[in-house]
């Protein structure tokens, strides 16, 4: 296929299902390098989305590319569902070594974050012999039936799809914007813990609950960190009632927050299982559940096998990804550049009253755009901003309509970050001056 962005999109449109893309900009990507994407017309963009946090090592990282090429020439596929291969076996050991839990752990492979979260449901039910699962509003856990049932962030994810998986109960997530202006942190946490306990006190026997599944920092829910005191309360509750505690690290793991796993931002919390995917293999389709050995041994084969899961090429990419994160000190880099980005957006907040909140955990940010007078989410202003940023040469999308999602590849250079800030300087100033118009396709854009 050759042609302009619009020609190619028009061709694709004839045969592409609407439900398979959240629309933002009319761009067709051709190649990428580091933090820069290039479209089919040769336009360059600084990438502030990193393929939805799936390319933390940047685009076409030479170490990852070489590992993929070498492995593809050696053994492209043999299913670990029947026979082990040397590359995937090595990766299992490596992943177990960086798991955020003490004691022996085991790994089970999948192809996507969604199926890894389904697997968490399977292991939890099998190990505990209990049926109920608790998850949070605002969560995005994936698009298979199990994981979409756990999710609670978009009506289109469940509309027309029921009946969903039985036994999943949702409790409200304490998103930072839900805290009243004059409410203390303690009151906020207690208010949400009370809401958390309500089902358990009225219709959900705690001794029939298998697992609580959380995103420690909700990604699609707005890059929103669970208050540590709230986390501690629900963790203690889980321990008290023999409920497993599972953390979805699909979006926030693999160095995104400046730690291997986002749960490591919460000292003292040790999950029983985590799910990982996306950046695990620098965006190649590989996922894993890593869990305590006894839990992972509660199922017999073939309860969780997939023909292409733990594929040797994706495993080689994952080994190379871990090498790059270690050798290029990407955890420290995420912290350092994240602090720089935080300082930039906080200074912008002082200047522009339409910036209502800035959250940044490593290179992992959510910036709320609000009506300066009422403080209410301002979706129009957000769409104007992201579109202007796109015109000026960077790709950023919105979450929940009014939150800028700031997740560049962790290899972004300081110079590139400075360029990004210049772009925002201009876009913010133009929004403040009333110079930005809504793009023609605004109604179709975003979640
Ligand atoms: C936190 C989280 N969990 C699970 C998923 C689903 O992963 P996948 O799209 O690879 O199935 C996503 C994807 O955005 C995610 O952000």
From TrEMBL:
Keywords recorded for this protein, A-Z: Aminotransferase, Pyridoxal phosphate, Transferase
Cofactor: pyridoxal 5'-phosphate
Source domain of life: Bacteria
Name of one Pfam family that matches: Aminotran_3
GO molecular function: transaminase activity
Matches recorded under InterPro entries: Aminotrans_3, Aminotrans_3_PPA_site, Class-III_PLP-dep_AT, PyrdxlP-dep_Trfase, PyrdxlP-dep_Trfase_major, PyrdxlP-dep_Trfase_small
PANTHER family the record matches: AMINOTRANSFERASE CLASS III, LEUCINE_METHIONINE RACEMASE
UniProt record similarity statement: Belongs to the class-III pyridoxal-phosphate-dependent aminotransferase family.
Designated name of the protein: Aspartate aminotransferase family protein
Native organism: Limosilactobacillus alvi
């Amino acid at each position: 296929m050759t042609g302009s962005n619009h020609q190619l999109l028009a061709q694709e449109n004839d045969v592409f299902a609407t439900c398979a893309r959240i629309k933002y900009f009319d761009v067709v990507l051709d190649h990428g390098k580091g933090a820069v994407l290039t479209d089919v017309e040769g336009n360059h963009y600084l990438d502030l989305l990193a393929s939805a946090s799936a390319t933390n090592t940047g685009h076409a990282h030479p170490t990852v590319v070489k590992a993929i090429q070498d492995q593809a020439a050696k053994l492209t596929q043999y299913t670990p569902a029947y026979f082990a291969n040397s590359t995937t076996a090595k990766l299992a050991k490596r992943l177990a070594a960086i798991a955020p839990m003490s004691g022996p752990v085991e790994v089970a492979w999948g192809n996507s974050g969604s199926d890894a979260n389904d697997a968490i449901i399977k292991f939890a039910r099998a190990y505990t012999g209990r049926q109920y699962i608790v998850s949070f509003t605002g969560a995005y856990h994936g698009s298979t039936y199990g994981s979409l049932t756990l999710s609670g962030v978009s009506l289109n994810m469940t509309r027309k799809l029921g009946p969903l998986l039985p036994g999943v109960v949702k409790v409200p997530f304490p998103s930072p914007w839900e805290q009243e202006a004059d409410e203390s942190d303690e009151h906020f946490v207690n208010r949400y813990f009370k809401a958390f306990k309500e089902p358990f006190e009225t219709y959900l026997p705690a001794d029939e609950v298998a697992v609580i599944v959380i995103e420690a920092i909700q990604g699609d829910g707005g890059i929103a960190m669970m208050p540590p005191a709230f986390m501690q309360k629900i963790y203690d509750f889980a321990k008290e009632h023999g409920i497993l505690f599972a953390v979805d690290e699909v979006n926030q793991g693999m160095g995104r927050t400046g730690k291997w796993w986002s749960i490591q931002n919460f000292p003292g919390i040790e999950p029983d299982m985590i799910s990982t995917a996306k950046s695990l293999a620098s965006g190649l389709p590989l996922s894993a559940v890593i869990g305590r050995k006894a839990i992972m041994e509660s199922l017999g084969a073939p309860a969780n096998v997939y023909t292409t899961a733990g594929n040797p090429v994706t495993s080689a990419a994952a080994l190379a990804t871990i090498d790059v994160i270690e050798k290029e000190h990407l955890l420290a880099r995420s912290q350092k550049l994240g602090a720089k980005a935080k300082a930039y957006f906080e200074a912008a907040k002082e200047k522009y009253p339409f910036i209502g909140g800035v959250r940044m955990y490593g290179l992992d940010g959510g910036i709320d755009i609000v009506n300066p007078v009422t403080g209410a989410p301002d979706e129009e202003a957000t769409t104007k901003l992201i579109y202007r940023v796109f015109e000026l040469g960077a790709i950023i999308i919105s979450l929940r309509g009014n939150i800028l999602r700031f997740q560049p590849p962790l290899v972004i250079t300081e110079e590139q970050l400075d360029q990004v800030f210049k772009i925002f300087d201009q876009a913010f100033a133009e929004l403040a001056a009333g110079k930005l118009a809504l793009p023609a396709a605004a109604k179709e854009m975003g979640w």
